[in-house]
Amino acid sequence: MSRGVGVLVSGRGSNLQALLDAGARGELGPAEVRVVVSNVAGALALQRAGRAGVPTEVVPHGDFPDRAAFDARLRQVLEAHGVQIVALAGFMRLLTPGFLQAFPDRVLNIHPALLPAFPGLHAVRQALLAGVRYSGCTVHLVDEGCDTGPILLQAVVPVLPDDDEDRLGARILHEEHRLYPRAVRLVAEGHVVRAGRRTVILGSGAG
Ligand code: GRF
Known about the structure:
alpha/beta; 207 residues; binds 5-O-phosphono-beta-D-ribofuranosylamine; globular
């Protein structure tokens, strides 16, 4: 039985593209992207979804009096498309508890750093300024905080001596595109359980 995935985006959508491509190659297991929702009209991600034949919806956050009302609309749109798993892919809004409770432990985010280091904006720049030798990317379950939820998967990327934000960011992004489809598949297959602040990956899916 397939599991409906809704992808929330605000911009470029390269991680969305990675999910769509993985799905087209049969690499998402039971996960199926059913809708792409953007809070920004004209986001490039919407064109990517359109090209892949995936329905799109625009829900501009400015049209709503508060976050709860915006999130209630998001939830309505996702449920109308049969979504059980929500993947944030460059979605620049925090989600309210009411929204998260509708998809318990089934909202994922990808971040371009090895959390809990360097949450928030400009994570690649933060890592370079801190002088770390290794950075990377993290897929985590989403909670009400900014990049604070339980970690699911990480990939490590070495920082090279002549790296700048663009070069390091590009190598991290390359790993993001491999990691996110794996994470979505694990969740869709039911291999992920939460144990407090940690996640446990059951069975052989951990590789
Ligand atoms: C990625 O770096 C992701 O880790 C972060 O926002 C960026 C989105 O890029 N959350 P894209 O829209 O998927 O190309």
